[in-house]
Amino acid sequence: MEPDPVGHAADCEGDLRARHELQVPLHGRRRGQSLTAAQLAFKACLNGGRSTAEHPAVPLTPDAIARDSRECQQAGCFAVHVHPRDSEGQETLVADTCEAVVRAVREACPGLLLGFSTRAAIEPDWERRLRLIRSWRVRPDFVSVNYWESHPLDLSRALGELGIGVEAGLSGPADAQSLLASGLQPQRVLVEISEPQP
Q1: Distance of alpha carbon 50 from its chain centroid, rounded?
Q2: Can you list the alpha helix ranges (DSSP code H) found in the chain?
Q3: What is the reported pLDDT for 169?
Q4: Is residue 26 part of a domain?
Q5: Which phi and psi (to 5°) does residue 10 adopt?
Q6: What CATH number has the domain bearing residue 141?
Q7: Least confident of 28-32, 129-133, 169-173
Q8: pLDDT of residue 109
Q9: Does any domain span residue 20?
Q10: Element containing residue 144 per DSSP (H, E)
Q11: What interhelical angle do 173-182 and 152-162 show, nearest 10?
Q12: 152, 189 in Cβ contact below 8 A?
């Protein structure tokens, strides 16, 4: 397979399929015992806080996000995480934009789980962020909630009431302790480790 010149997700397809066995030690497995690709779960994060100034192939529109989501699904991903963008390319939680992304991805990728970011950089006021999320008529399967930001437990509980899965973003022991003490059971835990630049 020839590499995609602009860096779409398709260029990882060959890598994922070629590595049908990985040497990954897991709890309950002997060191060096193979883990097949069928036992792995890949989630692709398509755009994050990135812009097309950083790379021209960063997907920002619903159609571009759906296209790249399809390529990721074909490469073996079970889910994608995206930051919806408004017409100016700014991250947003506004219903019309978020719903357009959900519809485009669901049409292009049946069965693929879709998640959004709810980071404070999108909307600093956590109550307004929650009001925006509650206004979604068509919802993603899950959203990420950063536990180092304001009111993560309130957001997580409200999301559960709305039937939206939570991916708890943890950046250190205090976040993990907060999650454990809450009794909440997120769908997944996302650990973000930051290291200083060398």
Answers
A1: 14
A2: 13-18, 62-74, 95-108, 126-134, 152-162, 173-182
A3: 95
A4: no
A5: -60, -30
A6: 3.20.20.70
A7: 28-32
A8: 97
A9: no
A10: strand 142-146
A11: 50
A12: no
